[in-house]
Amino acid sequence: MQEHATITQQEIAEYLHPIREKIHNEWFERLEKQFGGASRKMAFLQANRELGQDLFSLLLDKMKQRLRPAPGAYEALFRKIRSLDYSISDFFSEAFCLEQILEHCLRSCTGLNHQQILDGTALVRHMINEITWQIG
C-alpha cells in the first residue's frame, strides 16, 4: 500500500455505507452458492448479520475508526469458527467473497478516480487481513 493513500478508510466507509444492504445481499448470495442456502453455515452468518456482528459490519466499524466494534462482534466470529459446522477455511472463504464484492463496489463508484480505487481496494484488503489474522 502506498505511503500517502489518496483515500482514507473513513471515506471508503462513506461510499459503502449507503449501499451496505446491497453489499450484504450480494455477499450472502455468493456465500449461499458456496455453502448451500439452508446450511448451518448460512444460519450462523444470518444470525451474526441480524445482530450487526458479521464480518462486513465489523469492517465498517473499523473503517469508521470506532474504538470498539459492535458488542460481541469478535466473539460471534470466534464462536462460529469453533463450532462443528464452520471451519477456519470457511471463514477465509467468507472473507474472500466479501473482499471481491467490496472491490467490485469500489470500482463502480463514480466519485472515485483510478488511483483512489486502487488505494481503496488495497486498504480494504489490508483491513480484512487484519481482522482475519485476529480471528485465525
How many helices? 7
H/E element string? HHHHHHH
The proportion of residues in beta strands is: under 5%
The separation of the N and C termini measures: 22 Å
Mean pLDDT: 85
Give the biggest beta sheet.
Answer: none
Helix and strand composition category: mainly alpha
Number of strands: 0
Net shape: globular
**Estimated helix fraction:** over 70%
State the low-pLDDT regions, or none: none
Task: State Rg.
Answer: 15 Å
Brief descriptors of the model:
136 residues, mainly alpha, 7 helices, 71% helix, 0% strand, globular
Brief overview:
With 136 residues, the protein is mainly α. It has helices at 9-16, 20-35, 40-50, 55-63, 73-82, 88-108, 114-135. The model has no long low-confidence stretch (mean pLDDT 85).
Textual characterization of the structure:
Helix content is 71%, strand content 0%. With 136 residues, the protein is mainly alpha-helical. The protein is globular and about 45 Å long.
Topology of this protein?
Elements: H1 9-16, H2 20-35, H3 40-50, H4 55-63, H5 73-82, H6 88-108, H7 114-135
Helix pairs in contact: 2-3, 2-6, 3-5, 6-7
